[in-house]
């Protein structure tokens, strides 16, 4: 086991309440809980880090969209009289969300429990439930990309970040779809138990510590964005924000206030990549977004993202993705737009 200074063996388990309902997405429920409860394998002997309770309108079986059945520990009505603090209130998402908005027992419970929760979390379309409960008014939030227009239309007081993997606004956390809930849960683990423990949980679950970039690509951006070394962390943010700049080792080392040799060593220690390899990956990532979301020519995108020529960008795409930039655009911009989503009541 790895000792972590943030863990106190005398501390009781943190209470986690998961709110679910018929036709919730099963991974929206079990994904975050697997990440959080798996923390116990990497902490010193003592109480489990999280004590999980699953709630639904009725205790017992709850059928999910996959056809698999979850078991709710208790009903909302039975949990309503409680007054103790909830560490983390999580609201799951799924195709049953619009029906859940009309479930008075669920909505009443979410409003009441939010008032005694240290932090409030939604997974995927669970943000619709938080918004309906008035918990997102005046806040930034995200949800699955498909549902962002619905959230914006129904709740104009919410600032919807369409591209975020997850958003934290004060004590309220919201995530994009499905696996983004696991990304959010890993961030909660890091907040509770520290970076080293979260890193071990990520490795155990074969996850990246953080996925930079947004959900507009509908695919994962797999660059590690966080570093413990502040100079390197700032450099990573600079690279991702400015892929078209002259990002040579000399320029980056000078920006970090380090010698080139020291910078290169620290950078590789933190990211597992050389600066040049990381920069190329960041540029491919930026080019992917531009190819998917704009009509800008391939040559111009190559210049904007630092490749200097379309040929260099083509070779980089082949190294990273196995196809050219032009083929990538044809593949990902040729899809039909998603079907309309029922707006639901109201």
CATH fold descriptor of the largest domain:
Rossmann fold
Strands of the biggest beta sheet: in what spatial order? 5-2-1-6-7-11-10
Strand tally, please? 11
Number of helices: 15
Q: Let me know the average pLDDT.
A: 87
Low-confidence stretches: 1-10, 216-222, 334-346
The N- to C-terminal Cα distance equals 52 Å
Rg value: 22 Å
Class from secondary-structure proportions:
alpha/beta
What kind of sheet is the major sheet?
Answer: 7 strands, mixed
CATH architecture of the largest domain: 3-Layer(aba) Sandwich
Assigned CATH class of the largest domain: Alpha Beta
GO molecular function, one term: sequence-specific DNA binding
Protein name: Transcriptional regulator GlxA family, contains an amidase domain and an AraC-type DNA-binding HTH domain
Keywords: DNA-binding, Transcription, Transcription regulation
Domain HTH araC/xylS-type: 233-331
Question: What does this molecule look like?
Answer:
- It is a single chain.
- The protein is of the alpha/beta class and 346 residues long.
- The protein has two domains: 14-217, Rossmann fold; 230-333, Arc Repressor Mutant, subunit A (Orthogonal Bundle).
- 43% of the residues lie in helices and 14% in strands.
- It is built from 15 helices and eleven strands.
- It has helices at 26-37, 76-79, 97-100, 104-114, 126-132, 148-154, 180-193, 195-204, 230-241, 249-256, 260-271, 275-293, 298-304, 310-321, 325-333, and strands at residues 14-19, 50-56, 60-63, 69-72, 74-75, 86-91, 117-122, 140-141, 159-160, 166-169, 172-175.
- The strands form three sheets. The protein has a seven-stranded mixed β-sheet with strand order 5-2-1-6-7-11-10, sandwiched between helices. Strands 3-4 form a two-stranded antiparallel ribbon. The chain has a two-stranded parallel ribbon with strand order 8-9.
- A hairpin with a 2-residue loop joins strand 10 (166-169) and strand 11 (172-175).
- Helix 1 (26-37) runs parallel beside helix 7 (180-193) and helix 12 packs across helix 15.
